[in-house]
Write a structure and sequence with these properties.
Blueprint lengths: L6 H31 L8 E8 L6 H8 L6 E5 L2 E4 L2 E4 L4 E8 L2 H11 L6 H19 L8 H22 L2
Antiparallel strand pairs: 1-5, 2-3, 3-4, 4-5
Helix pairs in contact: 1-3, 1-4
């Protein structure tokens, strides 16, 4: 007689232990995701004075790109000095002095979880996390037999989640 476990049992075991393993990762992703929602505000940001040397006589339309400030809007110009929100730029020397509001380094590092690109080490964590979440989706449907009431209700909740997500995406 075979000691082979049914697929449902194996999926439940994998789901359980992968869930425990990912609990810490999910907590960090959740917290950093909540912080990133407020990235267009001053929430948890600290003011920082910046002096930056860029090329002299930069055109006003390229100055924002050189200083990495978005949106960039010039307020006025007096002689060689260009005034913009939170700072100045001296056209003759190329020196820019301005203030910026930035997250502390620890929070900035956390937000990198959501911004990782394929050439960065966090890429592997993001791919692993995404694949694990997809496994959770599939394994959740293996928890109960398809003929049970719980399974059928689960399908309705899944459909509701898909519809809510699509509505929020397309009605923004």
């Amino acid at each position: 007689m075979s000691n082979k476990k049914p697929l449902r049992t194996s999926m439940r075991i994998l789901h359980r232990y992968l869930g425990y393993f990912l609990a810490g990762i999910m907590a960090v992703y959740a917290l950093s995701g909540i912080v990133m929602i407020f990235r267009d505000t001053d929430f948890l940001k600290q003011q920082k004075q910046i002096t930056k040397q860029v090329k002299p006589n930069a055109e006003p339309d390229e100055l924002g790109r050189l200083l990495d400030i978005r949106p960039f809007k010039i307020q006025k110009q007096e002689g060689n000095i260009i005034y913009f929100e939170h700072g100045t730029y001296d056209k003759s020397t190329g020196k820019a002095d301005y203030t910026s509001k930035e997250w502390p380094a620890a929070i900035e590092n956390l937000t990198e979880l959501h911004k990782a690109r394929s050439g960065q080490p966090l890429f592997f964590l993001n791919v692993f996390f995404g694949m694990s979440l997809l496994f959770f989706v599939v394994s959740a449907f293996c928890m109960f037999l398809p003929k049970t009431t719980i399974f059928k209700k689960g399908l309705y909740f899944t459909l509701a989640g898909v519809i809510l997500t699509l509505v929020l995406i397309f009605l923004r």
